[in-house]
Amino acid sequence: MAKLLVAEDEPVLRMLILDTLEDEGHDIDVAHDGQEALDKLLASAYDLVILDNMMPIMTGMEVIEHLRAQPAGSSTRVLMLSAKNQVSDRERVLSAGADGFMPKPFSPMDLISKVEELLDG
Q1: Is the pLDDT of residue 73 over 90?
Q2: How is the chain split into domains, by residue range?
Q3: I need a labelling partner for 100 at 20 to 30 A (CA). Which of 39, 52, 62, 91 fits?
Q4: What's the pTM value of the predicted model, to 2 decimals?
Q5: Domain 3-120 has CATH 3.40.50.2300
Q6: Measured torsion, CA atoms of residues 71, 74, 79, 85, in degrees rounded to the nearest 10
């Protein structure tokens, strides 16, 4: 399956995401804050990164901006998770370079569907 990076600072939500996607057969790395996510993204290739927007040290939006500025960063798919889910928030995330947006809270089945959609291109 795909190689994913999950960047989520909330332990319970991080475990839900991991359990859900590992059951689908994905190879998953974890980052606990935005800087750790960016470091891992720059050091290794991932098919998809799932980013929480509100993380310590660096937000998900900042991670996207740094990632998209790198030549290799344009091919990595990005799914942003956010508790801020107004239309303007979604538009801002997508215009910054995210490939998808998922509001919190979400169901595991919705997450699986969105991940499959993004991986299929």
Answers
A1: no
A2: 3-120
A3: 39
A4: 0.94
A5: yes
A6: 90
